[in-house]
Amino acid sequence: MQSSHELARLYAMKDEAFLSDEAAWAAVMRRDRAFDGQFVTGVLSTGIYCRPSCAARHPLRRNVNFFANGEQARAAGLRPCKRCRPDDMARDAAAVRAALDAIKAGEGASLSELATITGYSPAHFQRLFKRATGLSPAAYARALRQERARDALVGADRVSDALYDAGYEAPSRFYAAMEGRMGMSASAWKNGGRSVRIAFALVETSLGAMLVAATAKGVCRLSFNEGEAELRARFPEAELVAGDAGFAALLARVIAAVELPGTDPDIPLDVRGTAFQERIWRELRRIPAGETRSYAELAAAAGRPRAVRAAGSANGANNVAVLIPCHRVIRSDGSAGGYAYGTAIKEELLRRERAPKI
């Protein structure tokens, strides 16, 4: 069975002009639906071409050629498989686009309504949409509404107006949807931390001066070579206080996690971003200590293989260094790439993670 690292590497290859034959054959042997639409498998002995996920018996490798699309396969004299219907991929992609447009336009479209729009059964379209986006239509609509609410809260005169404009029937619906995801209330979020108490400390570590700040929910900022001024710029309306005994216990865990990165993955966090940013941050936390991924691999693991630049931006938007390990992302050529606090710290963190544990 392929390791998660290898699968991510193969998924990331979809963003290139075409897969290598080795990667394409591996996808065929797995019947990997994620590669449907990325290439077709031409079986020269039968004269047909298939999707990578075709359920038919696998052909012999020597009888297979790979083509970028059905048009190329037909030009080579092959015909589409009647079982997997590879040319329907264009219809599938158009259906997903139509559904996305409908959700963005009204956000009230039910699964049955989307199925009617696209001409699929509800169950089949649910699977199709989730394969394409990584979310069900309902989950996508919720994430879109939450993202609109976050955007609307910035600069709004009244929180309730912003939430109504974002599509919520009542502010309570927003709070219920965000339960467990927000450490700050919507109004505090809008107003730079207003009415929120943030405990913080500046400590010396073997990597240099470190700022740690936390709300009642968890760590909201971990950075190097920053101080109270930078923290206040991020949360200008928050009450910044020196950490108490409870904060000291959390701080001790954070320091230990920095000195020995990867040893405490359960430190509570209070971070938020767009739906895509949060998916990237979740994938970052899934990278095993000492391993690295490229930006393309990270985007693929988050279900958006073509969003390489967006993955890089989400990586850079991380507010809690080390705890969300953005230092584990490198360039495709194997070089360290950038890091907000300098490549020396990035390389040292990776060296510590890879060092034998005594």
Attribute tags:
DNA Methylphosphotriester Repair Domain, 16 helices, 4-stranded mixed sheet, 358 residues, alpha/beta, 10 strands, disordered N terminus, Arc Repressor Mutant, subunit A, Double Stranded RNA Binding Domain, single chain, 4 domains
Write the topology of this structure:
Elements: H1 4-12, H2 21-30, E1 40-43, E2 48-50, E3 64-67, H3 70-75, E4 79-80, H4 89-106, H5 111-118, H6 122-133, H7 137-153, H8 159-165, H9 171-177, H10 186-190, E5 197-205, E6 208-214, E7 219-224, H11 228-234, E8 239-242, H12 245-259, H13 275-286, E9 293-294, H14 295-301, H15 308-316, E10 329-330, H16 343-354
Parallel strand pairs: 2-4, 5-8, 9-10
Antiparallel strand pairs: 1-2, 1-3, 5-6, 6-7
Total number of β-strand segments? Answer: 10
Number of domains: 4
CATH level 1 name of the largest domain: Mainly Alpha
| Quaternary structure type | single chain
- Architecture of the largest domain in CATH? Orthogonal Bundle
The strand order across the widest sheet is: 3-1-2-4
- How many whole angstroms does the radius of gyration measure? 24 Å
Give the full name of the CATH homologous superfamily of the largest domain.
Homeodomain-like
Q: What is the makeup of the main sheet?
A: 4 strands, mixed
